[in-house]
Design goal:
Strand content: 35-45%
Radius of gyration: 13 Å
Distance between the termini: 25 Å
Number of strands: 4
Number of domains: 1
Structural class: alpha+beta
CATH architecture: 2-Layer Sandwich
Strand order of the largest sheet: 2-3-1-4
Helix content: 10-25%
Shape: globular
CATH class: Alpha Beta
Order of helices and strands: EHEEHE
Number of helices: 2
Length: 73
């Protein structure tokens, strides 16, 4: 059985990024980019773990990044 993984963008409260990063990793996020000035972390996570990311203290929102594929494939 394959596991569905999505790219996500996580917004965090101002000034909480250093503490939140470890908690996000423990919740299953594989961090790609940390945009500290914007309070945003991007990465990949199993779809079923997205609710866990939302429960991390300091997380404002978790947005799935949709992919659009135009022909030719």
């Amino acid at each position: 059985m394959t596991t569905s993984v999505d790219q996500v963008m996580v917004s965090v409260t101002e000034g909480s990024l250093p503490q939140v990063l470890n908690d996000l990793r423990e919740a299953g996020l594989v961090v790609d980019t940390v945009l500290e000035a914007l309070g945003v972390v991007t990465g990949t996570v199993e779809v079923r773990a997205i609710p866990s990311l939302l429960q991390v203290p300091g997380v404002l929102d978790v947005e799935r990044q949709w992919r659009v594929q135009l022909p030719p494939y």
